[in-house]
Amino acid sequence: MSLFALLVATAPLAAQDLAMPEGDVLLTVTGAITVANDGDAAAFDRAMLEDLDPVTVKTTTIWTDGVQTFTGVPLDRLMDVVGATGAAIDATAINDYSVEIPASDWEDGGPIVAFLNNGETMSVRDKGPLWIVWPFDDNPEFQTETIYSRSIWQLDRIVVTE
């Protein structure tokens, strides 16, 4: 079997690996992805995000007081799950604020898509329901205006771009 035929034959299986959301959709990922569950989009509810082996990061931020504990899915893991093939993402908030995050930021030990802050779900009023957070205290390279500007809260959609 040719490589092309093999890829075509297995493509529908990859799409089936991502379950359909049963609860309210918190995040939709589109663009240059190979795994979807809603047409050409990958839609995630809270339970689906919680099933992606979340991690916990303890860090201070410039927007909160004291050390915060964030729990969420590492951005690199989320991009792997959707089969992201692009060079960047456009992350957009509920209010249409948008930031570009290059693929070079999707690294182990990099940002997470947080769904808990100090063990609690985040309301829209408290920067939720999703917030891309870096472990700022772990690496001085994360303590820059550029990285701070990429720490988008009220995240609800991501477009993977070429």
Give keywords:
alpha+beta, Sulfite Oxidase, Chain A, domain 2, 4 helices, 5-stranded mixed beta sheet, OxRdtase_Mopterin-bd_sf, 5-stranded antiparallel beta sheet, disordered N terminus, Oxidoreductase, 20% helix, 162 residues
- Given as residue ranges, the uncertain stretches (5+ residues, pLDDT < 50) are 1-16
Give the total of domains: 1
Major sheet: arrangement of strands? 2-1-10-5-6
Determine the oligomeric state from the structure.
Answer: single chain
Most strands sheet: 5 strands, mixed
How far from one another are the termini?
Answer: 29 Å
The helix/strand order is HEEHEEHEEEEEHE
| CATH topological fold name | Sulfite Oxidase, Chain A, domain 2
Compose a concise summary of this entry.
This is Oxidoreductase. The chain is of the alpha+beta class. It has four helices and ten strands, in the order H-E-E-H-E-E-H-E-E-E-E-E-H-E.
Explain what this protein looks like in three dimensions.
InterPro entries: OxRdtase_Mopterin-bd_sf. This is Oxidoreductase. By secondary structure, this protein is α+β, with helices and mostly antiparallel strands. The protein has a single domain (about 5-160), classed as Oxidoreductase, molybdopterin-binding domain (Sulfite Oxidase, Chain A, domain 2, Alpha-Beta Complex), CATH 3.90.420.10. It contains 4 helices and 10 strands; from the N terminus they run αββαββαβββββαβ. It has helices spanning about 5-15, 45-50, 75-80, 145-150, and strands at about 25-30, 40-45, 55-60, 70-75, 90-95, 100, 110-115, 120, 130-135, 155-160. The model is unreliable at about 1-15 (pLDDT under 50).
